[in-house]
Amino acid sequence: MEAASVAHGHAHDDHHGPPAANQSSRVEPQLLGMLLFIISEVMVFGAFFTAYFFIRVVHDGQPPPHWFPIKGNELPKAVAGINTAILLSSSITMHWAQTGIKHGNRWALKAGMLTTFLLGVTFLFIQINEYVHVGFAPQDFAQATVFYGLTGLHGAHVFIGLTLLLMVNIRAFRGHFSPEEHRGVEVPGIYWHFVDIMWVIVYTSVYIL
Questions:
Q1: pLDDT under 50 in the chain at which residues?
Q2: What is the CATH number of domain 77-209?
Protein backbone atom coordinates (compact mmCIF):
# COMPACT_ATOMS: atom_id res chain seq x y z
CA MET A 1 0.00 0.00 0.00
CA GLU A 2 2.84 2.39 0.92
CA ALA A 3 4.67 1.62 -2.32
CA ALA A 4 1.52 2.36 -4.28
CA SER A 5 1.16 5.68 -2.47
CA VAL A 6 4.77 6.62 -3.25
CA ALA A 7 4.32 5.68 -6.92
CA HIS A 8 1.14 7.74 -7.01
CA GLY A 9 3.00 10.68 -5.48
CA HIS A 10 5.77 10.45 -8.12
CA ALA A 11 3.19 10.29 -10.89
CA HIS A 12 1.49 13.36 -9.46
CA ASP A 13 4.82 15.25 -9.37
CA ASP A 14 5.57 14.35 -12.98
CA HIS A 15 2.43 16.16 -14.13
CA HIS A 16 2.81 19.19 -11.88
CA GLY A 17 2.93 22.58 -13.59
CA PRO A 18 2.07 23.73 -17.13
CA PRO A 19 2.90 21.54 -20.12
CA ALA A 20 6.10 22.12 -22.07
CA ALA A 21 5.95 24.83 -24.71
CA ASN A 22 5.19 23.59 -28.19
CA GLN A 23 8.15 24.12 -30.54
CA SER A 24 8.19 23.79 -34.31
CA SER A 25 10.60 21.20 -35.66
CA ARG A 26 10.95 23.20 -38.88
CA VAL A 27 12.18 26.57 -37.54
CA GLU A 28 14.49 27.06 -34.56
CA PRO A 29 13.36 29.58 -31.94
CA GLN A 30 16.30 31.96 -32.56
CA LEU A 31 15.68 32.03 -36.29
CA LEU A 32 11.93 32.40 -35.88
CA GLY A 33 12.42 35.28 -33.44
CA MET A 34 14.68 37.14 -35.86
CA LEU A 35 12.26 36.63 -38.75
CA LEU A 36 9.33 37.96 -36.70
CA PHE A 37 11.44 40.94 -35.63
CA ILE A 38 12.32 41.69 -39.25
CA ILE A 39 8.63 41.55 -40.20
CA SER A 40 7.87 44.14 -37.52
CA GLU A 41 10.71 46.34 -38.79
CA VAL A 42 9.34 46.17 -42.33
CA MET A 43 6.10 47.61 -40.96
CA VAL A 44 8.02 50.48 -39.32
CA PHE A 45 9.79 51.28 -42.58
CA GLY A 46 6.44 51.02 -44.34
CA ALA A 47 5.07 53.88 -42.24
CA PHE A 48 7.95 56.14 -43.25
CA PHE A 49 7.66 55.15 -46.90
CA THR A 50 3.95 56.02 -46.74
CA ALA A 51 4.87 59.58 -45.75
CA TYR A 52 7.53 59.71 -48.47
CA PHE A 53 5.24 58.57 -51.29
CA PHE A 54 2.44 60.81 -50.02
CA ILE A 55 4.70 63.85 -50.53
CA ARG A 56 5.77 62.58 -53.95
CA VAL A 57 2.20 62.00 -55.13
CA VAL A 58 0.86 65.29 -53.76
CA HIS A 59 3.65 67.56 -55.03
CA ASP A 60 5.03 65.95 -58.20
CA GLY A 61 3.83 67.83 -61.26
CA GLN A 62 2.75 70.82 -59.17
CA PRO A 63 4.46 74.12 -58.34
CA PRO A 64 7.05 73.99 -55.54
CA PRO A 65 7.49 72.62 -52.98
CA HIS A 66 8.30 69.32 -54.68
CA TRP A 67 10.83 66.55 -54.15
CA PHE A 68 14.53 67.38 -54.48
CA PRO A 69 16.01 69.65 -55.68
CA ILE A 70 14.13 72.04 -53.43
CA LYS A 71 15.02 75.55 -52.26
CA GLY A 72 18.45 75.21 -53.80
CA ASN A 73 19.20 71.93 -52.00
CA GLU A 74 20.32 68.78 -53.79
CA LEU A 75 20.80 65.27 -52.45
CA PRO A 76 24.38 63.91 -52.64
CA LYS A 77 23.59 61.08 -55.04
CA ALA A 78 27.23 60.25 -55.84
CA VAL A 79 28.19 59.96 -52.18
CA ALA A 80 25.11 57.86 -51.47
CA GLY A 81 26.01 55.63 -54.42
CA ILE A 82 29.49 55.01 -53.00
CA ASN A 83 27.95 54.28 -49.62
CA THR A 84 25.58 51.81 -51.27
CA ALA A 85 28.51 49.96 -52.82
CA ILE A 86 30.20 49.82 -49.41
CA LEU A 87 27.15 48.36 -47.71
CA LEU A 88 26.54 45.81 -50.47
CA SER A 89 30.18 44.75 -50.16
CA SER A 90 29.56 44.13 -46.47
CA SER A 91 26.85 41.62 -47.40
CA ILE A 92 29.39 39.74 -49.49
CA THR A 93 31.91 39.61 -46.65
CA MET A 94 29.18 38.54 -44.23
CA HIS A 95 28.26 35.67 -46.54
CA TRP A 96 31.96 34.79 -46.74
CA ALA A 97 32.14 34.59 -42.95
CA GLN A 98 28.98 32.48 -42.72
CA THR A 99 30.16 30.07 -45.39
CA GLY A 100 33.59 29.88 -43.79
CA ILE A 101 32.40 28.77 -40.36
CA LYS A 102 29.99 26.26 -41.88
CA HIS A 103 33.02 24.60 -43.50
CA GLY A 104 35.22 24.94 -40.43
CA ASN A 105 37.33 27.76 -41.86
CA ARG A 106 37.91 29.97 -38.81
CA TRP A 107 40.20 32.35 -40.70
CA ALA A 108 37.41 33.12 -43.17
CA LEU A 109 35.01 33.66 -40.27
CA LYS A 110 37.32 36.12 -38.51
CA ALA A 111 38.38 37.97 -41.66
CA GLY A 112 34.83 38.14 -43.01
CA MET A 113 33.28 39.34 -39.76
CA LEU A 114 35.97 41.96 -39.12
CA THR A 115 35.72 43.27 -42.69
CA THR A 116 31.93 43.40 -42.46
CA PHE A 117 32.14 45.38 -39.23
CA LEU A 118 34.65 47.87 -40.66
CA LEU A 119 32.57 48.37 -43.81
CA GLY A 120 29.50 49.00 -41.67
CA VAL A 121 31.36 51.57 -39.58
CA THR A 122 32.54 53.26 -42.78
CA PHE A 123 28.98 53.42 -44.10
CA LEU A 124 27.70 54.98 -40.88
CA PHE A 125 30.56 57.50 -40.77
CA ILE A 126 29.86 58.61 -44.35
CA GLN A 127 26.15 58.96 -43.61
CA ILE A 128 26.81 61.13 -40.55
CA ASN A 129 29.23 63.22 -42.59
CA GLU A 130 26.51 63.60 -45.22
CA TYR A 131 24.15 64.99 -42.59
CA VAL A 132 26.78 67.54 -41.54
CA HIS A 133 27.30 68.86 -45.09
CA VAL A 134 23.91 68.30 -46.74
CA GLY A 135 22.88 71.91 -46.13
CA PHE A 136 19.43 71.57 -44.54
CA ALA A 137 17.93 70.44 -41.25
CA PRO A 138 15.00 68.09 -40.59
CA GLN A 139 12.71 70.96 -39.59
CA ASP A 140 13.38 73.11 -42.68
CA PHE A 141 10.67 71.57 -44.89
CA ALA A 142 8.58 68.42 -45.18
CA GLN A 143 10.91 66.77 -47.70
CA ALA A 144 13.84 67.25 -45.31
CA THR A 145 11.85 65.65 -42.49
CA VAL A 146 11.09 62.59 -44.58
CA PHE A 147 14.68 62.40 -45.86
CA TYR A 148 16.15 62.46 -42.36
CA GLY A 149 13.42 60.17 -41.08
CA LEU A 150 14.02 57.40 -43.62
CA THR A 151 17.80 57.57 -43.76
CA GLY A 152 18.04 58.13 -40.00
CA LEU A 153 15.82 55.14 -39.30
CA HIS A 154 18.04 53.02 -41.48
CA GLY A 155 21.14 54.46 -39.82
CA ALA A 156 19.75 53.41 -36.44
CA HIS A 157 19.35 49.88 -37.77
CA VAL A 158 22.92 49.92 -39.02
CA PHE A 159 24.06 50.92 -35.52
CA ILE A 160 22.11 48.02 -34.00
CA GLY A 161 23.61 45.70 -36.60
CA LEU A 162 27.12 46.94 -35.80
CA THR A 163 26.51 46.20 -32.12
CA LEU A 164 25.56 42.64 -33.02
CA LEU A 165 28.57 42.32 -35.35
CA LEU A 166 30.89 43.53 -32.60
CA MET A 167 29.61 40.80 -30.30
CA VAL A 168 30.02 38.19 -33.04
CA ASN A 169 33.57 39.42 -33.73
CA ILE A 170 34.53 39.10 -30.08
CA ARG A 171 33.13 35.59 -29.89
CA ALA A 172 34.70 34.61 -33.23
CA PHE A 173 38.17 35.65 -32.08
CA ARG A 174 37.62 33.69 -28.87
CA GLY A 175 36.84 30.57 -30.88
CA HIS A 176 33.20 30.20 -29.84
CA PHE A 177 31.81 29.00 -33.19
CA SER A 178 32.12 25.73 -35.08
CA PRO A 179 30.54 24.00 -38.11
CA GLU A 180 28.04 22.41 -35.73
CA GLU A 181 27.36 25.52 -33.62
CA HIS A 182 27.17 28.66 -35.75
CA ARG A 183 23.68 29.99 -35.09
CA GLY A 184 25.26 32.98 -33.36
CA VAL A 185 26.73 33.98 -36.73
CA GLU A 186 23.77 33.10 -38.91
CA VAL A 187 21.07 35.02 -37.02
CA PRO A 188 22.96 38.36 -36.90
CA GLY A 189 23.88 37.74 -40.53
CA ILE A 190 20.21 37.55 -41.48
CA TYR A 191 19.63 40.89 -39.77
CA TRP A 192 22.61 42.46 -41.55
CA HIS A 193 21.38 41.28 -44.95
CA PHE A 194 17.97 42.78 -44.11
CA VAL A 195 19.65 46.12 -43.31
CA ASP A 196 21.45 46.01 -46.66
CA ILE A 197 18.28 45.23 -48.60
CA MET A 198 16.40 48.05 -46.87
CA TRP A 199 19.15 50.50 -47.80
CA VAL A 200 18.90 49.55 -51.48
CA ILE A 201 15.17 50.33 -51.29
CA VAL A 202 15.79 53.62 -49.44
CA TYR A 203 18.58 54.65 -51.82
CA THR A 204 16.54 53.86 -54.92
CA SER A 205 13.41 55.60 -53.67
CA VAL A 206 14.93 58.70 -52.08
CA TYR A 207 18.04 59.39 -54.16
CA ILE A 208 17.28 57.95 -57.59
CA LEU A 209 13.53 58.19 -58.32
A1: 1-8, 10-12
A2: 1.20.120.80
